[in-house]
Amino acid sequence: MDLFKALKVSAAGMDAQAMRLRVVAENLANRDTTASTPGGDPYRRKTVTFQSRLDRSLGVETVRVQRVGRDESPFGTRFDPGHPAADERGYVKTPNVNSFIELMDMREAQRSYSANLSVLEVTRGMLTRAIELLR
Fold first, then answer.
1. How far is CA 81 from CA 49, 62, 97, in A?
2. Which residues 6+ apart lie within 8 Å of 103 measured at CB?
3. Cα atoms in the 13 Å half-sphere on the side-chain side of 41
4. Angle at 62 between CA 56 and CA 67, to 5 degrees
5. What CA–CA distance (Å, rounded) separates 33 from 96?
6. How far is Cα 58 from Cα 102, in angstroms, rounded to an integer?
7. What are the backbone dihedrals phi and psi of residue 56, each rounded to the nearest 5 degrees, phi first?
8. Is 20 exposed, middle or buried (0-12, 13-18, 19+ CB in 10 A)?
């Protein structure tokens, strides 16, 4: 594989995983965000969908974020009759963010980012050695 292609593929992977990390961070930051009006919906967890894309100029498949979607799973509830968003029974809808799942997603994204960074660093080292040999 051409070294420039390896750099492009690694950079695309790093971009995709960086976006995933930003979405996970947003989910974790909003895990306790509720509505401010009775019956309103709290924060809804976001998800990232990846897509494999052919880079025609290089002739290689790269990854990119296809879309940032919303997790349509049901909200939780907690009893808090004094909350401004409590319904007539005293229950407040809570976000559908599970901290454990978010932390596992974060760990996976970090490892994927690190793997792409390692490929980038090794490729850069190979390019540097090739340039030194040509001197």
1. 37, 51, 22
2. 28
3. 8
4. 110
5. 10
6. 34
7. -65, -35
8. buried
DSSP H helical ranges for 1-135: 3-29, 99-134
Tokens of 26: 């947003």
Predicted TM-score (pTM) of this structure? 0.87
Domain residue extents for the chain: 3-134
pLDDT in tens, 60-112: 899 999 999 999 999 999 999 999 999 889 999 999 999 999 999 999 999 99
- Tokens of residue 86, six digits: 């409590």
CA distance 132 to 126: 10
